[in-house]
């Protein structure tokens, strides 16, 4: 099989390739592997192959119409339509006027259309077989799932809901799947036509109202006008957690807090929550202590009322803690009483108190050991999740403060389940996973003194070095050209003076934090945007390296740049499921490989986190050995809707980033990809994701449309669309590097 033989010429004019064949014998037409019997032959005029329009369009599932009055041939495939005026180079494809190099012909009352632009308009491909003298039109095989031998006709594949009954926690259910591509098969759900059906791909999507508390049948039917294929699925939207019955008097076996052991010190609070029979008197007891009344709520976190949710907050006092060391670990018992009846339950989380602080001195493990344990959480001690596991067993993680830096030291003031409790500021409790740190048994406390600050620059970086007597805790708040670094539990040497400021630095300040006497706030502001920053420890010195924008050759902005492409998911992790057999992991790998080739052509050094369908550890994208050499990191994904989302109206491009210096990159990527793909630009989103946690380099995650949405997945699944996505991403990367103009490169 060859796309070009001696008898064929392909001329590219204004970006459009046109087949030219010298007619030497009869030319056959093959569509999707089948030889088409034609009443009128394939012809060649001016060395261009023309095919009869009507049989080609109808074979590809379209309805056709000839208007003899204005001599316009029309074809429609669902909402997709083409209008081909004869003897005109201007045609209409899906409402847009397009200029073809060769006009449509009317020959002996038969409309002839040039084969290549016609197939391209439909999303099909054209090949020429010189040996067999065949023009071969094929539609993308990616659109149709593998057909089971028992599959009825017409084809119907329901991707969601799945075959097994599911619980779905929203009152509006999305239903999606696929039928035969390039066909006029109609699809209904519970008797109503689906909201969206792309007849070129066969992919459909619709929303169904879901009643609460009953097994709901989703009946999907595909009809070709003669035969009907039916698939049924069962979904339940569970009723809200009902109040437990008053009789018998009970305490629920699992809806209990604390559900993990707690080690607390004076001033800490302990949430105690149980679910039980309503209308009872409730009290709790810690160890052999006194009984303390609990309050009944209408529902979890709701107002006071007869709902069977019993809560209390205990504040640890100095009297609870021993004179030194730790108390015994004590059970927490809750008792319900009503009309002489009584029932008690010991909660799964036990409690101990300590008086000597700090409890332990900790040091963060090597970066390679952290992975999912490396997040540093802020918690809200006054909130909770009763019906699912709560991090630390009590309280609720409000947000991620940062990802941990190897070698940083902390003082723990207690523990909550698998986490150490850390208090850096007066009213903030942080959680630090026990596997992320090692205990320094030879240290009783941290007493760091900041003795010197060094500031220097090279053509590539600004370096800020803090010399201290020992390692200490810190947190960073970054903007596009500034770092605000909070240094906790540290004193400033009386002789410390700030260094002279080099040319790239606008400002350097060191001040005590208001209301926090043992905290210093160090601010460094550059005259320009930085592209990344790296904190690291060397002995007891903490260094921050701020990367200046790179020097750019406007003619070759990507030359020599090291770019990491991360196709999301892979192996046993499919990512978002598609309407057929192809899922997120498949399409993003294809896009990533196309992007690799495009960037390589531009002179970039490209590193792929995977080049095949394999599992890649989420926390090893990119691998540690690539961190220092990486100039740009892009993670390629395709989106999925969450329960309750209006999936029909929610679609398009989304980009995600973590640090302020990457917001501009996320904006450029969003707008460039959306514009070039002609899809909605949804929004950029700042999120703490594993692959966006790196501070060292420009980093962005791209959601290239929604897998289940027929408008988006036309581009996502089509091989041509995947190349176009890659081209748009390449254009964005070039634009990003070119955005470092003379002003940003001043002082280099």
Which range best describes the helical content: under 10%, 10-25%, 25-40%, 40-55%, 55-70% or over 70%?
Answer: 10-25%
Identify the CATH class of the largest domain: Alpha Beta
Tell me the number of strands. 56
Q: Biggest sheet, open or closed, and with what strands and sense?
A: 9 strands, mixed
Counted up, domains total 6
- Overall, the morphology is flat
**Terminal CA distance:** 55 Å
How many helices? The count is: 7
Structural class: mainly beta
Mean pLDDT rating: 91
Description:
With 748 residues, the chain is mainly beta. It folds into six domains: 8-139, Copper Amine Oxidase, Chain A, domain 1; 156-223; 251-353, Immunoglobulin-like; 360-439, SH3 type barrels (Roll), CATH 2.30.30; 449-547, Immunoglobulin-like, CATH 2.60.40.3470; 562-738, Zn-dependent exopeptidases (Aminopeptidase). The strands form twelve sheets. Strands 26, 34, 35, 36, 37, 38, 39, 40 and 41 form a nine-stranded mixed sheet that branches. A six-stranded mixed sheet has the order 52-51-53-56-54-55. It is flat, with a radius of gyration of 33 Å. 41% of the residues are buried. Residues 1-23 and 742-748 have low confidence and may be disordered.
Short description:
The chain has 748 residues and is mainly beta. It has 7 helices and 56 strands.
